[in-house]
Q: What sequence folds into this?
């Protein structure tokens, strides 16, 4: 049995140290919705820190990120999307968050059409990721650092790399494997390298690959 021999103040310090040892911070990214970007003046992809016990780590993982070998959790910030939806701001739909929607694009060929607002089907994001999305938090499943650059490229990979493949497959009713072959780690690594080379910001051009973190 452990008996502490120090003073009360020292005991309090020990308890605080034990609590801190059990909780660590994780580098994550907040993907801000149009309202937070246009009116709140926050960056679209914002570096943040969360605890390793944050509820974000209990949310489902978008299957597209899983297939790319970079599984991340996507967590809607409670009330944010609804709040922007109710504000009815002129000339802007504040609750819209296209990067978050494309991150949650479905890639399950066995469910071409689904009415379940939470289920991932084929080509489109579930309805919960199309309506009143608001700002979200994205964090890596392995709790390694996730950088804004990684998240930005990951979100852009879906519309700018995959959309044409999805569209052709749906219109021509071609094999789904033609699309699935594009949703793999080597394809995203290639895309990320090209994405970096096009950036004007030197820090973005020199950023490490998410697979090398």
A:
């Amino acid at each position: 049995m452990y008996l502490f021999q120090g003073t009360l103040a020292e005991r309090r310090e020990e308890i605080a140290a034990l609590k801190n040892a059990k909780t660590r911070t994780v580098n994550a990214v907040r993907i801000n919705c149009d309202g937070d970007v246009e009116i709140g003046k926050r960056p679209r992809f914002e570096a943040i820190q969360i605890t390793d016990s944050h509820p974000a780590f209990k949310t489902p993982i978008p299957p597209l990120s899983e297939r790319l070998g970079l599984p991340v959790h996507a967590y809607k910030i409670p009330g944010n999307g609804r709040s922007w939806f109710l504000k009815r701001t002129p000339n802007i739909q504040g609750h819209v968050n296209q990067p978050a929607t494309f991150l949650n694009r479905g890639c399950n060929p066995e469910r071409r059409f689904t009415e379940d607002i939470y289920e991932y089907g084929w080509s489109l994001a579930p309805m919960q990721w199309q309506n009143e999305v608001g700002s979200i938090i994205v964090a890596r499943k392995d709790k390694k650092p996730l950088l804004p650059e990684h998240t930005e490229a990951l979100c852009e990979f879906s519309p700018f790399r995959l959309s044409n493949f999805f569209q052709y497959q749906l219109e021509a009713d071609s094999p789904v494997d033609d699309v699935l072959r594009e949703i793999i780690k080597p394809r995203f690594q290639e895309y990320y390298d090209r994405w970096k080379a096009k950036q004007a910001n030197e820090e973005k051009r020199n950023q490490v690959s998410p697979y090398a973190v």
Summary: Residues 162 and 182 are 7 Å apart (CA to CA).
